[in-house]
Amino acid sequence: xxxxxxxxxxxxxxxxxxxxxxxxxxxxxxxxxxxxxxxxxxxxxxxxxxxxxxxxxxxxxxxxxxxxxxxxxxxxxxxxxxxxxxxxxxxxxxxxxxxxxxxxxxxxxxxxxxxxxxxxxxxxxxxxxxxxxxxxxxxxxxxxxxxxxxxxxxxxxxxxxxxxxxxxxxxxxxxxxxxxxxxxxxxxxxxxxxxxxxxxxxxxxxxxxxxxxxxxxxxxxxxxxxxxxxxxxxxxxxxxxxxxxxxxxxxxxxxxxxxxxxxxxxxxxxxxxxxxxxxxxxxxxxxxxxxxxxxxxxxxxxxxxxxxxxxxxxxxxxxxxxxxxxxxxxxxxxxxxxxxxxxxxxxxxxxxxxxxxxxxxxxxxxxxxxxxxxxxxxxxxxxxxxxxxxxxxxxxxxxxxxxxxxxxxxxxxxxxxxxxxxxxx
Length: 425
Fold this sequence. Notes:
metal-binding; six-stranded antiparallel beta sheet; 28% strand; EC 6.3.4.13; Rossmann fold; Phosphoribosylamine--glycine ligase
């Protein structure tokens, strides 16, 4: 098949790699120079819709996969569908499950999908009064899309008020922050589960857990994700079955009932509480960085599975047993202010390390930083401990001025596995 992957990040690199592995011909746009190992990089800006459509027609594209949330909520899928392409991405209407956190919360409450209590505000003083009434900890979210940075888990009322001021008074997130959603703080451990969806057919992918905080020990500001791993041994088959039964299937059914049937990847960010899974957020696309550790474990042909799903079938997915653990190398200062244009030299990985490139540009044969998260390095091994050791052994010799990475990705799962082994001895 000829496949067009739209986007420029590590997620799109991983999707392109999964398709190329099964000998499909992959184009990516705009792409980045790190993707040339698996795809033809077209370089067409996602805002140039007519050029994208023309490029897809000229290359007889059989399948379009759209990665970035901005393009989904702006209706790019609808435009490709209107031209007769097979598109694996939600319509603008269905993508509002990510584009508006208040809509997602309303949907969950209407259809009894488990989540925390919430309220929505566009007035700072009223929001502060609600925080004082509810107390802390409490979660503050900009209502619209904010690249994973619009969420503050406020452990004190003062922290919540500061976050509210950033969103509602300072306009830190622009149009995405005209409203805030204040949510219940949920206790438990996080889990990410993505599913291939077409209408009311839901096919879950392997689970993952990411690390959203910038620094070791899960401290610092929220980011788009500093690393991830799969599988997540803290949870068993019964937990994952509950995620499909109580969250993913009801969400697909709810969107269909609302007249917004969902096609694409439905991502559930979950808190696994003592009362079962509860939704922290829904995304309308492949997660980043979860995709970079989930898709390398997929033995099935991703593109073929998607086409079967679009044709009304239910694909059967098969998975490798091996674990994958990935570490993000980010620009110093991320998720705040950081420099671009830093020269990247000496980044050479062993052949058995996956490198998924994101915020990178090329000039005169040299790579330069062009974003906050620059690349993700991932290792496969028989278990998470071995994968963690392997990837950090590959990272340690690198000289990476201008970049930083967490040195503890996967620590919770590895500690839990160690404690379990000790208890069994």
